[in-house]
Write a structure and sequence with these properties.
The complex is a heterodimer. Chain A is of the alpha/beta class. Chain A has a single domain, classed as HUPs (Rossmann fold, 3-Layer(aba) Sandwich). Chain A contains eight helices and 13 strands. The model of chain B has no long low-confidence stretch (mean pLDDT 93). The chains are: A alpha/beta, B alpha/beta.
Chain lengths: 290, 339
């Protein structure tokens, strides 16, 4: 019996390590200055998927990501860690998508995959922190959802039992498959790359990547079909163009402001004993403390 | 029709602070737009809800009282909102940026094809000009939030789709009673018209909710640490200073991500918003995400080894130096001079 798991993952700029050159002079974001990484919570999601794969006979794990050509990197990264393969959804028609247009495109791609038993993704991506795409995909596919998952406890008789980590507590819930599960950062970390798999999948590539090398590797890839990363454009999925990209995005950005603080007149102090003692005396005197 | 809706979060029959804060904000938006403030309570044994929310100026309270609606699960509450919104056609819908609001909001927006902005730090009413289409929209909801790791602040609008939806974290808006004696209308919903039996597909088997032990939001003094504190060990100095001054310890997201402090201590856009009497920022550089959660503190002391750290610009006192050096001195001289 097949059991097909799809992990939704995103390549994101590493907003946690924003350097001084991250913003251009005109106030726009200098994406080139930010390293592109595997969205952290999507790695937690991948780990949950890989655990199920090792428990369920015949289970497969495929990655689905939407992004530019280079986003294939995270599909390869997933394969190094144990995923079977992946799909890259790419094209300029998807540009400018907000969360709703993104989830519509992802839902169209998932429908094309045929039988999918479980969809797992990170709770949110660090470039937007919205946590919206998972539930929006679920709604578009008419599937139930379990968000804030910390651990998939059991999968039996087409039912999934999940421990959820909420702000103020823990919940254990059970529901029927197919299902969308979004995974928290508090879930176990993803396993590292496996040396043998890294060797095996090193040359896994999308059609675009193969073209870019300029060489004809047709025979090489025909002999090794597991190295083909599926690349889908807008024409490969059944869609309504009005629901994609900018036109499929109900939210519009009215204004982007670079962050400028209105400077207060601050008092500058050194770490000397006198300065610190004077400050504490002042704070006690004006009843801020004590 | 065309009113403002707030989804109420209810735990053990008590309406959450985040919902009361949104009612307060919703009321002022409703006044500006000259429309009504309405609220939806979904759960079980909701008799006490009306008395809790009417003082906030709720003109219509929709009650969905059914044993199966508590505790919260995604699909039944989604169906309820989606079908109620189809009837009532609100122009704005607000919910808490909590584990419930962030589970529910996206589903509702996806079903209704309406725009949703998560974690707003400010909500305003204004105009929007779509230059390409040559169209001007009046009285839109500006959904304002930091984006891109806090390097920019974005104003988002939903020109064409309704309702305009936004989630807001607890503590971001202020809660304020309008009139303790105000009584609005109650509208009891016939659940079977809104929710299908097939919506009850996820079952809650176990549930342990804790009242938060920490009260960062209510603490008059907060000693907060960032990545610059350097280690979980150095964070002990912050705890020591907080205990000495009678305050709580907070942390920036970077410090929480690095494992220096627990998640519930996180202050900022994606954590708690605080307005203490004194905020001592230790080793915090001052990303807007963090600033958004503490800028209304009455007094800010910034301790940083980098004299050019952005947080210094909003600080009343800037002390240049290391946490290891300065915090023990603060403890020492406080003890020496107090009493």
């Amino acid at each position: 019996m097949s059991f097909n798991i799809v992990v939704l993952a995103k390549q994101v700029p590493d907003t946690r390590n924003v350097g001084k050159d991250a913003m251009k002079a005109d106030g726009t974001v200098n994406r080139a200055a930010l390293p592109a990484i595997y969205n952290p919570e999507d790695l937690n999601a991948l780990e949950q998927a890989l655990r199920l794969k090792s428990k369920i006979k015949g289970a497969t794990v495929h990655i689905l990501t939407m992004g530019p050509a280079r986003a294939a990197e995270i599909i390869r990264e997933s394969m190094y860690r144990g995923a079977d393969g992946g799909y890259l959804l790419s094209g300029r028609e998807f540009a400018g998508s907000d969360t709703l247009a993104t989830s519509y495109a992802l839902a169209c791609a998932i429908r094309k995959m045929g039988k999918v038993d479980l969809i797992i993704c990170g709770r949110q991506a660090i470039d937007g922190d919205t946590a919206q795409v998972g539930p929006q995909v679920a709604e578009k596919l008419g599937l139930p959802q379990i968000t804030y998952a910390e651990e998939i406890l059991e999968l039996k008789d087409n039912k999934i039992t999940v421990k959820r980590r909420l702000e103020r507590g823990v919940e254990v819930v059970k529901g029927s498959l197919p299902m969308v599960v979004t995974v928290n950062g508090s879930a176990p970390e993803c396993r590292p790359r496996h040396a043998k798999l890294t060797m095996k999948f090193k040359r896994a590539a999308t059609a675009t990547e193969k073209q870019e090398t300029g060489n004809d590797y047709t025979d090489f890839y025909d002999a090794r079909p597991y190295l083909n990363i599926t690349e889908w454009g807008v024409s490969d999925i059944e869609h309504d163009i009005n629901w994609l990209g900018l036109s499929g995005s109900p939210t519009k950005v009215k204004q982007i402001e670079n962050v400028v603080f209105t400077a207060k007149e601050s008092k500058r102090l050194t770490a000397s004993n006198t300065d610190i003692e004077d400050l504490m005396i002042e704070l006690i005197a004006n009843h801020t403390i004590g | 029709m065309n009113n403002i809706f707030v989804y109420l979060e209810i735990e053990d029959g008590i309406v959450g602070d985040v919902s009361l804060e949104l009612l307060t904000k919703g009321r002022s938006l409703a006044k500006q737009l000259n429309c009504k403030l309405e609220a939806l309570a979904a759960g079980y044994k909701l008799d006490g809800i009306a008395a809790q929310v009417f003082p906030y100026g709720v003109e219509v309270l929709h009650l969905a009282d059914d044993k199966r609606l508590a505790p919260y699960t995604s699909l039944p509450h989604t169906s309820l909102l989606v079908n109620l919104f189809k009837e009532e056609k609100p122009q704005i819908a607000l919910m808490g940026a909590t584990s419930i609001g962030r589970d529910l909001g996206p589903r509702v927006s996806s079903a209704l094809f309406s725009g949703l902005t998560a974690d707003c730090t400010s909500l305003e009413i204004g105009t929007y000009e779509d230059k390409k289409a040559g169209k001007v929209y009046e009285n839109l909801l500006y959904q304002i939030r930091p984006a891109f790791g806090g390097n920019i602040v974005a104003t988002i609008v939903n020109p064409d789709c309704r309702p305009q939806m936004a989630t807001v974290r607890e503590g971001v808006m202020k809660k304020e009673i309008k009139d303790a004696k105000f009584v609005g209308k109650t509208h009891k919903l016939d659940i079977s018209k809104y929710v299908a039996d097939t919506d009850f597909v996820v079952e809650v088997i176990e549930r342990h909710m804790e009242k938060s032990k920490l009260n960062i939001k209510g603490s008059p003094i907060i000693v907060s640490g960032g990545y610059g504190v350097g280690s979980a060990d150095n964070f002990k100095l912050l705890h020591e200073l907080a205990a000495t001054l009678g305050g709580e310890v907070g942390a920036s997201r970077a410090a929480v991500d690095a494992g220096f402090a627990e998640h519930e201590r996180q202050i900022g856009q994606t954590g708690t918003t605080v307005r203490p009497k004194l905020y001592i920022a230790c080793g915090i550089s001052g990303q807007i995400q963090h600033i958004a959660g503490m800028q209304e503190s009455a007094m800010i002391i910034a301790i940083n080894s980098d004299p050019k750290a952005p947080i210094n610009q909003i600080a009343d006192y800037v002390i240049t130096g290391t946490v290891e050096d300065i915090l023990p001195k603060m403890i020492k001289y406080y003890k020496k001079n107090s009493k």
